[in-house]
Automatic annotation (TrEMBL), chain B:
It comes from Effusibacillus dendaii. The keyword Cell membrane does not apply. It holds the Pfam family Gate. Residues 42-152 form the Nucleoside transporter/FeoB GTPase Gate domain. InterPro entries: Gate_dom. Keywords: Membrane, Transmembrane, Transmembrane helix. This is Spore maturation protein A. Coiled coil: none annotated.
Length: 178, 198
């Protein structure tokens, strides 16, 4: 399993890129000129995203640096205790949708303290791998086309993050029989 | 909703900072956040430029159309409002494939491209369309089959078997994505009922 997945993740990108180039060339696509034409769109798209990301990241950063996040976590602890969700994992579940690097650093923290093979280490790994930074994806995706009214998208994103976090705990308990 | 989240994060943060005498934390938060926002955006430039170039070749070579033919039944179910032959469908499918393969870096530019093409179909440019909401639901749930970053960090910390979480991650991701799709449909139906659209 390990070799198989490593191999796949190592080979996927080079294989995809070379197939596109080779097939493009044989179908008479002027590959270099076409690449340049497509790549030109990259810069304006990025520039359009900047204000959206700055707005969101300032808010998240203020929330964390002010100590509000710690307070929230402390307050929610009893709730998670009654749900049998290990309290060490709660900050990660809450941070996962708002900061990818934030939740990643909590995961490494858990690895350091409890080891990657501990139940907590496994839950953290699954949690990190099974969802994405919703607020970032939302900001970047909608920001790039100037959507102001995101309708129910935020709700759906955050609720499914919650579900993914809960599933991570359940699946690890189920698969590793603890 | 995003308005409420944004203003709450900021105002609660500032209030807590004021109550605990941690005003420099707020200043630091603002400066760091702004800096991160710009550096993350600029960090996207390299990969975005590269992938949009490669994607254009794939598009002109007819590869995107091939892929969409293959996954058409699934896409038709998920995106009923997008005409099956519209270029947006190709980008949506390419984004999906990149996510499934765990090519996170490649998935974002493809998703952004899909967004831009969906915007062409959107009658109200400032309001997200149904298809845009679905695209977002699927992307925030992350379809990843190989969590490459997690595996790499597990290796660094000498896990006995760094990849033993792959199976559990696939199950959790699948259930999470399924939840996202169901919620997307649920809230859409609810919104329609409220607005009186059949």
């Amino acid at each position: 399993m390990m070799e198989w997945t490593n191999l796949l993740s190592e080979w996927a990108l080079p294989v995809v890129i070379s197939s596109i180039l080779v097939i493009g060339h044989f179908r008479k696509v002027p590959v270099y000129e076409t690449f340049i034409l497509g790549a030109k769109e990259g810069f304006p798209t990025t520039v359009r995203i900047i204000p959206h990301l700055v707005a969101m990241m300032v808010a998240v950063s203020v929330f964390r640096e002010s100590g509000a996040l710690d307070l929230l976590l402390k307050g929610l602890r009893p709730v998670f205790d009654t749900l049998h969700i290990p309290s060490e994992i709660v900050p990660m579940a809450l941070l996962r949708p708002i900061s990818g690097t934030g939740s990643l650093s909590i995961m490494t923290d858990i690895f350091q303290t409890y080891g990657p093979d501990s139940v907590l280490g496994k839950i953290a790994s699954v949690m990190q791998g099974s969802s994405d930074t919703t607020l970032y994806v939302l900001t970047v995706y909608f920001g790039s086309v100037g959507i102001r009214n995101s309708r129910y998208a935020v709700k759906v994103g955050l609720l499914s993050d919650l579900a993914a976090a809960a599933f991570s705990v359940l699946v690890v308990y189920w698969m590793f029989g603890v | 909703m995003i308005n409420v989240i944004w203003i709450s994060l900021l105002l609660i943060g500032i209030a807590v900072g004021a109550a605990t005498g941690n005003m420099e934390g707020i200043t630091r938060g603002i400066l760091r956040g702004a800096e991160n926002g710009v550096s993350v955006s600029l960090g996207l430039i390299s990969i975005l430029v590269f992938w949009l170039g490669i994607m254009k070749i794939a598009e002109d070579a007819g590869l995107v159309q091939m892929l969409s033919k293959l996954l058409r039944p699934l896409a038709r179910f998920l995106y009923p409002s997008v005409p099956p032959d519209h270029p947006a469908m190709g980008s949506i499918l390419a984004n999906m494939s990149a996510n499934i393969l765990g090519l996170g870096n490649a998935a974002t530019p493809l998703g952004l491209k899909a967004m831009q093409q969906l915007q062409e179909l959107n009658p109200e440019p400032h309001r997200a369309s149904d298809a845009m909401c679905t695209l977002l639901a699927i992307n925030t749930a992350s379809l990843t089959i190989i969590p490459a970053t997690v595996i790499a960090i597990r290796m660094q910390y000498d896990a006995k078997s760094p990849t033993d979480i792959v199976g559990a991650t696939i199950v959790a991701t699948f259930l999470g994505t399924l939840t996202a799709i169901v919620l997307d449909r649920f809230f859409r139906a609810r919104e329609r009922r409220k607005r009186g659209i059949p």
